[in-house]
Design goal:
By secondary structure, the chain is an all-alpha fold. Helix content is about 75%, strand content about 0%. The two termini are about 20 Å apart.
């Protein structure tokens, strides 16, 4: 539990970022057949890269209680954009997910700050 949030509430930042990572895992997982059939990447390599990144996204979505996980989330965005070197459409999709990730992170932090300020004001008033 974050010291900035109310004791019984979930982190909006964590929830939004986890949602982005879960949707991104599906998208990255769907690159595997494209890598195999269109980009002619060997099956083993495509499975390791595509499914590996998808699994990392899902695992990271569950680890967002740790501050380092948000930095790792940005690294995942770089990797998703990097898939564009193999599948050109991933330049666009990776950029879209990077924008979604950055927005979820930024807005989540903002919401948590505002909630913390509201709780502090409430406690000061009702002390």
């Amino acid at each position: 539990m974050s010291e900035t949030s109310a004791p019984t509430e979930r982190s909006p930042r964590r929830g939004m970022c986890a949602a982005v990572l879960c949707l991104e895992a599906i998208t990255i997982g769907l690159t595997v057949p494209v890598m195999i059939t269109i980009a002619e990447v060997p099956v083993g390599t495509a499975l390791v890269v595509g499914l590996g990144l998808a699994v990392v996204c899902l695992l990271l979505a569950g680890m967002l209680r740790a501050p380092w996980a948000y930095t790792a989330g940005y690294a995942i965005q770089v990797a998703a954009i990097g898939l564009g070197l193999v599948i050109s459409m991933m330049f666009l999709l990776g950029a879209v997910f990077a924008a979604l990730w950055a927005t979820a992170d930024h807005l989540g932090r903002k919401i948590e700050r505002e909630k913390a300020a509201a709780w502090a004001a409430y406690r000061a008033e009702h002390g």
